[in-house]
Design the sequence.
């Protein structure tokens, strides 16, 4: 299951997985996806190792930006993943 986290100003959707407790330490996967002409570009990163397991269309600079974004948001992503996503009333 993937939970919505944020939409950036360029239309990039950021979603995250549930907390994967079968791993030690527990992990989450964070997916970035943005519409482009003819489809989408997407990338997926595993936290807490910051391992990029997929990148279709993003430049090194964009991945570097996303890595910095994740470094600043990982604590929240883990919190929301453990609680079933952001609970917005």
Sequence:
């Amino acid at each position: 299951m993937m939970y919505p986290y944020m939409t950036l100003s360029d239309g990039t959707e950021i979603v995250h997985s549930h907390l994967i407790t079968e791993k030690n330490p527990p992990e989450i996967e964070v997916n970035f996806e943005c519409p482009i002409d003819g489809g989408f570009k997407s990338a997926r990163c595993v936290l807490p190792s910051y391992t990029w397991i997929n990148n279709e269309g993003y430049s090194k600079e964009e991945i570097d930006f996303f890595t910095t974004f994740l470094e600043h948001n990982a604590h929240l992503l883990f919190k929301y993943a453990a609680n079933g996503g952001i609970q917005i009333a």
User: Anything to note?
Assistant: The chain has a mean pLDDT of 94. Residues 60-82 form the longest helix (23 residues). The radius of gyration is 13 Å.
